[in-house]
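Show me any protein, fold above all:
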Amino acid sequence: MKTNRLMWAGLGTVVACVAVYIIFTSASSMDTIRTGLGAAGPEVESSTSPNSPTQHTTVSMPPPGFDARTQLQFDGDRITVRMPPAEFLALPYAERAQIISRQISAVVDYVSARTGMSDIVNIVCRLDNPAPGVIQIRNDFDPACEDILKLNYSFSTNVRTSAVQERFIHTMISSLSADTSGHLDENEYIQKMHGFSDTGFMRRFLSDEAVQYIELAMTVRDIARAAIGGRNRSSREKIEALMDWVFVNVSNHFVRQAPGFEDFADYNDRPLGYMLRGMGDCDRSAWVLCRLADRAGMSAHVVYLHKPGEENRASWHTVTEIRTDRGWQAVDPFNNIIYDKSVLQLSREGDYFKRSWIFPNHVPPLAYLPVMKIADMICRSYIADLELFVDVKKTVYAYLSDEYGETTNPGKADQYVGLMSRSYAVQMMPDEVSLTRWEMPFWIRGYYYEGAFRTYKRKKLPFMAKIREARLEQILGHYDQAGKLFESLKNDTGESDPRFAEERDYFMILNAYYEQDYASVERDVPLYREKYPETPRNTMLRYLLAHSLKTTGDLLNARAIYPAEANFQGRGKID
């Protein structure tokens, strides 16, 4: 029996037909995973920390039968989830994630005790998921599963960081350290941005960060469902609904810096953070649309566009690409445009998309972990369409097959993933479009390490804590509850934070818009603009007012209030 199958060597040579553009130099050569789980590394966390809600204590294999503590049934090589989905879904998101965490620990302990394996890769590669709620221990080891995890490992380690990102971490740590008696280790934060250490990748249980990932995944899924507004809708209707939602709730065409803190523009966040904040530039809008489409059951990519001759410079615009029943389609949420063709097809017709970089990894890096594959098996017993684990090779292979058909083979997907793991952009000859790894999700892990960015944001934007609950209800589509929560905040003057009242009042107008209370929108927008003449929300307020007037039949005034503007090129125009 193999005990340490992740001592992997290189990924093989690259066939001559693959053209490689070396955009960045990797920080170091690919690490191999050290023997055992006790190896030192920046992500080592005590498995018995009394302060951790996800602490893991090794237990003996439970006897056959039902375990009331975990709601799992253990019968020989078969483990069954017995908690009814309705009971699970009635719980808050955080409690659901904790239940899945406890069940994962119990499954790992049971399989380890029954098979004698301690390596998480060996454990995962002995498991099947023949039906929702059922985990079967195989009689043999699945080498295909090992190959999946091998590529996932190479893809989620040795990520490059830029001087800009490291400077932001330094600013954040310095700011927080000045207000606390403790000491925050800047090197550990930066290391977190480099991807997983071998120890982090090989964890046998969910870290606090991984538990929160599951909580956020369930939350964003429900936001996506609310934005779509119905189950029996075509992929085109889903995209239109999601893009309209992102256009209003994220693409507000401004970036606001915290007064006195020029280094802090609050767009270095996770997708849910952008949704709650209600603002973001083009790549943040594209990322949010990707995440919503993904949680709605559609594959999606973030795509950077480059001007001819400037491929090695920063992208000048970002769009999304979503797989529909018509194939891949480019979508621009910032400008409210849906294209009828894929990025690859559009790249063959002109320079606008010609030198695009496609990122197949908008998901959090935690989605690549072996333990998350077990989370996936368990979660499907409650939410059948929620995918927590991602096979990066499958993602790349599916895209190449869609776009190039029978010319693609699994070996090419292996080679592409291997090259992308080395920070190479792989040009898909004969086209000029490239596939590459996106570092943003890894950087965000650094920002959130030990809750640093969350603490930093609360310090710089204190009003967000006050309106978070109401805003979350709003983006979940619970407009009546959101309205009541916002109303309860009206007596708060926000004397210590003048942005509080401005943001609260804006989201109250947005709530009326979504409740189709157009009379209130038409009354309150002029009052808001008079009260807050310098607000960067004015552009979107004109949009909301104009569309309210258009809906109620006053097209003439709608056009006068909101003429065609450069930032609103597509479906959002009043015509």
In short: Residues 93-115 form the longest helix (23 residues). Residues 271 and 288 are 5 Å apart (CA to CA).
